[in-house]
Design a protein that fits this description.
globular, mainly alpha, single chain, 50% helix
Length: 131
C-alpha cells in the first residue's frame, strides 16, 4: 500500500497578509536592497492582490483574481527570464527592468504562493510562515 501524499496546488497567502507585506515594503523598503528590487516586490504583490491586472513578467491579463497556480507559473517565468538563453520576450523583461526587478518578482511570488522561501518577514510578523 502506497503512502504517497496527494499533490495539492499551491494556495496564495491570505489577502490580508499580502496587503500587509505591500504596506510594509512600501513604508520601509526591503532591507538594503535596491529600489529596483523593491519595485519588483511591490509590482508582484500588486498583481497577486488584484491592484494590477497585468502580471509582472508575462504581462498576462487573467480577467479574474490571481490563484496560487497563476503565481507559481509566473514565478517560473520570472526564473526563466533571468537567463539570456530563455524566451526572448522573457529575457527582454530583465533587460528593460533589471536583474534585481526580476529576482524580486521571483522571490515575492515564491513567498506569495505559500512557500517558506522567497521573502523574509519582520520578526513580529503576525502570520505563521511554516506551511
Amino acid at each position: 500500500m502506497s503512502t504517497a501524499q496527494e499533490w495539492t496546488p499551491p494556495e496564495l497567502r491570505s489577502q490580508d497578509e499580502l496587503k500587509a507585506m505591500t504596506a510594509y515594503v512600501t513604508e520601509n523598503g526591503y532591507g538594503t536592497t535596491s529600489k529596483t528590487y523593491v519595485r519588483g516586490v511591490i509590482t508582484a504583490l500588486n498583481w497577486v492582490t488584484g491592484e494590477s491586472a497585468v502580471s509582472p513578467i508575462t504581462e498576462t491579463r487573467l480577467g479574474r483574481p490571481v490563484e496560487g497556480m497563476d503565481a507559481s507559473s509566473e514565478r517560473s517565468r520570472a526564473y526563466e527570464a533571468l537567463y539570456a538563453n530563455s524566451d526572448p520576450a522573457l529575457w527582454k523583461v530583465t533587460q528593460v527592468n533589471g536583474q534585481d526587478y526580476t529576482l524580486a518578482v521571483e522571490h515575492t511570488l515564491a513567498w506569495a504562493a505559500g512557500g517558506d522561501e522567497g521573502l523574509a518577514v519582520p520578526a513580529d510578523w503576525p502570520w505563521p510562515q511554516v506551511r
